[in-house]
Predict the structure.
Amino acid sequence: MLIDSYDRVVDYLRVSVTERCNFRCNYCMPEKPFTWVPKENLLSFEELFEFMKVSIDEGVNKIRITGGEPLLRDGLDKFIKMIYDYEPNIDLAMTTNAYLLKGAAQKLKNAGLKRINVSIDTLISEVAQDIAGKDVLKNVLEGVDEALKVGLKVKVNMVPMKSVNANEIIDVLEYCKKRDMSIRFIEYMENAHAKKEIQGLKSTELLELLSTKYEFEDEGFDGSSPSHYYRFKDGYRFGIIEPYADDFCKQCNRIRLTAEGQLIPCLYFDEAMSIGEAIKRGDIKGAALVLKEVVRTKPEKNRWGGEDSESSTRAFYETGG
Ligand code: SAM
Ligand code: SF4
């Protein structure tokens, strides 16, 4: 079992399989980065799988594939199948913008993927174009329909921003509720790569807007999920991810791997250690030692919110969010 210096059990690995993306979201990658990681520096799926085995053997029981946009990487279904065949009970999920999902959902499901999270920030085509930098909404919604059709469980992530999509939180929630998909509103996290003018809605503002239409009860946290949950009388539940809240990091159980093999203990900070060298020379013990060291050095808290609040310099498209 992997336990950090603050007694948190780390059993969740997020794997970014590429930093590249077909969207240019204003809060994540508004401009194409100056350089991409050269393809030859990426770990192959076989190499990434070697590290998945190390992590599973050390106690990881949940793996999420993310990016950049994970569906841009060829052979993703084969990677998913490798993990599934090694440990069918692993909670195997993916976060995607869904643009390419329509043609991929069935293959991913067949390979062993159980759940996906899709980013839907708006249901208005022009707003989607403003946020993502291109006309994406039709493909995204068709991707979601296909995922539901093939039997994948779907959750939706929305980042509410003032003067952009804040007026749509009820519409997006209703879209999800009708399809029995849960929704999580993610507070915009300030970072050096996002558009400067963005102002995110904080959870108090979100709750105020939602309470103009709904009655709900505060259910608090559920296990190690970062969401603060609320439930309507009819049983439907929504979540808010509040990284600015003082107690947000208390139950954090996750570490992140980039596509070039950097293992990152916290989404906020720049610190990382490479497992790439060890994996490339087949040094499984070495990779396990790096994993344990990264878990040991996991910081207690991020620095969003509070008196010393700062914007992060980490790119979300690199860490996978
Ligand atoms: N491309 C995929 C997608 O968009 O779902 C996966 C990668 S994306 C980096 C993962 C998640 O990070 C998305 O739900 C996205 O909304 C979220 N995200 C990116 N930048 C963010 C920011 N500045 N604040 C809050 N959430 C952010
Ligand atoms: Fe791409 Fe996802 Fe970042 Fe948007 S949030 S730019 S879809 S990685």
Summary: Residues 15 and 54 are 14 Å apart (CA to CA). The longest helix spans residues 45-58.
